[in-house]
User: Fold DUF234 domain-containing protein from Cellulomonas chitinilytica.
Amino acid sequence: MGEFTRHCGAPVVYFQAARQAPLADELATLADSVATSDLPDATVAADAAPRTLTAALTLLAAALPDDEPSVVVIDELPWLLEQVDGGAGELQRVWDTRLSKKPVLLLLLGSDLAMMEHLTGPEQPFHGRATEMVIDPLTPADVARMCAADPFDAFDAYLVTGGLPLVAQEWEAGWSVRDFLDHSFGTSTSALVVSGGRVLDSEFPETSLARRVLASIGGRGERTFSAIQSDGGSDVLHPGTLTATLRMLRDKRVVAADEPLSARSAPKNVRYRIADPALRFWLAFVEPALAEVDRGRPDLALARVDRGFAAWRGRAVEPVVRDALSRLLPDATWPHVDQVGGWWPRTNIPEIDLVGTTWNRDVQLVGTIKWRQNPLKADDVAALSTDATSVPGVGAGTPLVGVCPGGADTEGFATVWGAADLLDAWG
Assistant:
């Protein structure tokens, strides 16, 4: 947003709300943002002290020019509206009566996706009045270009940076994961170190139940409801409380709930994972290292990554691979693959990394993901063939596929996708 406002060529008002700030302070800050902007009539807001949101927005409208375009950015809108009963209605009314009559681009931003979507839902103030746009993180292909990385290293860079531009821009061309982490763990103010904390602190207080659940899923790798519930030892979470927390985290797109994909539905075998790419690596490796980084011991943080990165990456890359194949398929080779997922039973043994089906859940392929530079071998084919017999809908003729950056030294797979093939999913 900063790049846009700097280069848009129009006068700009930028206001960012603060969570749980007193309403009087927020309204004064909004008026000051108008008064200190480059609007031609910004002085109308000088020394103003609006007491209501309507008054503050009316002041904004008075400062906007009638004869040239302008831009107004209200960042973290949900935090402003949570301080005002009926605030969304006030904003809608001032838009209809005053702001919409000006040549102004009004940008309403918020990191709380559930709340932002609510504002434009049916029977809500901005239903039919706004164009919605979700600003996603950089894709793996974006990161590859930004970091000048080859396909294999690009996925490493994506997994570590989460696709956050401010983090990725610190990754220099030719760096390995170790090089980047050596740089990032060397200072407590690096983009990687501060990014996850900012994301979490803006939405979830440190002592909240949501933080506990996120630490369980992202920090300790718990995936099942029962494992998350009992992760606190003797302090077992009440099922209803955990259900509500997981629902809230899913609504906010922070956590995802995956069901096994096969010819038979299995909703009771849901597995949870961190959906926000900015938090996956951060919760697993950065948050546990914050104290070490603060006291100048990046070596301890790096040692933790050395011990756990390979196993973590093997798991973390799976949803990224499935996303890529969901974009690439169907194609000429696999014209009937409409859904891509994985499969597992209640015991998690065996786990099948890839399952491709039609919309009617007719299994078209099963596959393995081996994220390594060494090629797939005949024993990988044999292991997949054995394990796949457990998947409902898989028969003797179901094709086997593989994903491996190192390719394959066997003809047992119908298709093998490498890292470069997957990058093509994002253009």
